C-alpha cells in the first residue's frame, strides 16, 4: 500500500514502515528509545516489532495495564516517573505499540514530557489504525468522560502493519469497523455498502481508504474548528453511552465501536427529523448495525444518565449539545442542535427495534 502523507508526518504501511522507522532513528540520533505497551501488546505484538525494527540505541519497554479504565492522568504520571527513572531526556523517542488507549495516552505523555519529545505510533488494533493513531489528537479521560484532557500533537511517523490484527479478537475488529462505517456514511458510501453486504469481507482492504479519508479531513481542519467535526458522526450519543456503560457496575462495558454504532443509529434518526435524511436509509442503518453488533440491552431508565454525560461533550458550546447530522449519505452538516425530546426519541428508536 502506498504511503499517505499527513501535514507533518508520513503514514507508512507494512515492512516499509519499519524501514522508515529505522532510518528515522538513525537520522535523528535519539539518545534513547522507549516503547509503550500494555499487558496485551507486550506479549502479542512486541515480539513482531523486535523482529522488524533494528537499532543500536538503548531501548526500554514501559508496560501499563490494558483497558479504557486505565486511560487517565494517573497512568500518565506512572509512565512519566518510569521514563524519568530510566534516564529519558529531551532527545528520547517514545514509540507507542498498541490500540487507541496506548496511542492516545502515549502521544499525550510524549507531548508533555519535558515540554515535548518525539513519538511514533504503531497501532495494533483496527480502531487505532483507521482512527486513533491518525490526526494528532492525544489525551486521556477524566473519570468516565472521554478524552477531556489532551493536546493536538503529531507523531514523527506512523507504521500501519495489518499483521497485528491477527492478535485481536473478532469483537475488537467489529469495534474498529464502526469507524470505517462512519467514513462510509459521511464520505464514501462504498465502504458502508461493502461492510453491510459482505459477510466474508476482508476488512484489511478498507484500511487504506479509511486513513485517506481521515487524513483529507484533518489536512483541511487540523484542530477541529469546522469540518473535522464530521469525524464525530455517531460519537455525541455514542460517547455518552460508552461512558455510562463504563461507570455503571450493573452494565458490561461496551467497546468504543459498539457504543458509536448505537450512536450512529440514534443520530441517523435525529438526521431524519432535523435535516430530512431519508427514512428508508435510517432503517437501513439500524438493520445493518444490529446485524453486525447485535442488540445492546438499553432501557428508558438509562436515558437520563446518558443525557447528563452527553452534556460534557467537547463539541458543545453554551450548554447546547452539538451534533454532526446527515442530509444524505456523503452530505453532512456540522453544529446541529436537537431537542432533548428528540434525543430521547432517538434512543427509544434503537431500544424498540425488534
Automatic annotation (TrEMBL):
Example of a GO MF term: 3-dehydroquinate synthase activity
Pfam families, per database record: DHQ_synthase, DHQS_C
Residue ranges of every copy of the 3-dehydroquinate synthase C-terminal domain listed in the record: 176-316
Cofactor(s) listed in the protein's UniProt record: NAD(+); Co(2+)
Domain 3-dehydroquinate synthase N-terminal: 62-174
Coiled-coil intervals: none
Presence of keyword Nucleotide-binding: yes
Taxonomic superkingdom: Bacteria
Key word NAD present: yes
InterPro entries in the record: Dehydroquinate_synthase, DHQ_synth_AroB, DHQ_synth_fam, DHQS/DOIS_N, DHQS_C
Enzyme Commission number(s) of this protein: 4.2.3.4
Keywords for the protein's UniProt record, in alphabetical order: Cobalt, Lyase, Metal-binding, NAD, Nucleotide-binding, Zinc
Transmembrane region(s): none
Main function: Catalyzes the conversion of 3-deoxy-D-arabino-heptulosonate 7-phosphate (DAHP) to dehydroquinate (DHQ).
Protein name per the record: 3-dehydroquinate synthase
Native species: Tenacibaculum tangerinum
Gene that specifies this protein: aroB
Amino acid at each position: 500500500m502506498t504511503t499517505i502523507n499527513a501535514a507533518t508526518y508520513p503514514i507508512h504501511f507494512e515492512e516499509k514502515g519499519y524501514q522508515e522507522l529505522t532510518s528515522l532513528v538513525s537520522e535523528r540520533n535519539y539518545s534513547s528509545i522507549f516503547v509503550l505497551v500494555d499487558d496485551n501488546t507486550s506479549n502479542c505484538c512486541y515480539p513482531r516489532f523486535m523482529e522488524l525494527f533494528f537499532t543500536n540505541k538503548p531501548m526500554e519497554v514501559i508496560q501499563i495495564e490494558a483497558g479504557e479504565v486505565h486511560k487517565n492522568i494517573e497512568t500518565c504520571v506512572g509512565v512519566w516517573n518510569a521514563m524519568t527513572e530510566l534516564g529519558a531526556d529531551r532527545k528520547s523517542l517514545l514509540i507507542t505499540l498498541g490500540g487507541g488507549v496506548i496511542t492516545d495516552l502515549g502521544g499525550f505523555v510524549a507531548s508533555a514530557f519535558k515540554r515535548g519529545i518525539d513519538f511514533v505510533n504503531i497501532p495494533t488494533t483496527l480502531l487505532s489504525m483507521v482512527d486513533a493513531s491518525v490526526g494528532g489528537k492525544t489525551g486521556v479521560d477524566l473519570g468516565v468522560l472521554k478524552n477531556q484532557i489532551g493536546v493536538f500533537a503529531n507523531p514523527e511517523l506512523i507504521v500501519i502493519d495489518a499483521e497485528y490484527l491477527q492478535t485481536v479478537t473478532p469483537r475488537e475488529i467489529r469495534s474498529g469497523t464502526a469507524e470505517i462505517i462512519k467514513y462510509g456514511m459521511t464520505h464514501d458510501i462504498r465502504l458502508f455498502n461493502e461492510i453491510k453486504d459482505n459477510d466474508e469481507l476482508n476488512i484489511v482492504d478498507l484500511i487504506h481508504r479509511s486513513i485517506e479519508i481521515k487524513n483529507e479531513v484533518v489536512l483541511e481542519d487540523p484542530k477541529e474548528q469546522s469540518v473535522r467535526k464530521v469525524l464525530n458522526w455517531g460519537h455525541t450519543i455514542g460517547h455518552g453511552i460508552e461512558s455510562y456503560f463504563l461507570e455503571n457496575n450493573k452494565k458490561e462495558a461496551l467497546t468504543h465501536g459498539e457504543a458509536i454504532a448505537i450512536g450512529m443509529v440514534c443520530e441517523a434518526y435525529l438526521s431524519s427529523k432535523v435535516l430530512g435524511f431519508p427514512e428508508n436509509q435510517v432503517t437501513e442503518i439500524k438493520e445493518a448495525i444490529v446485524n453486525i453488533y447485535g442488540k445492546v440491552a438499553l432501557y428508558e431508565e438509562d436515558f437520563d444518565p446518558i443525557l447528563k454525560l452527553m452534556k460534557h461533550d467537547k463539541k458543545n458550546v453554551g450548554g447546547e449539545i452539538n451534533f454532526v447530522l446527515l442530509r444524505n449519505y456523503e452530505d453532512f452538516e456540522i453544529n446541529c442542535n436537537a431537542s432533548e425530546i428528540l434525543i430521547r426519541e432517538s434512543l427509544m428508536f434503537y431500544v424498540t427495534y425488534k
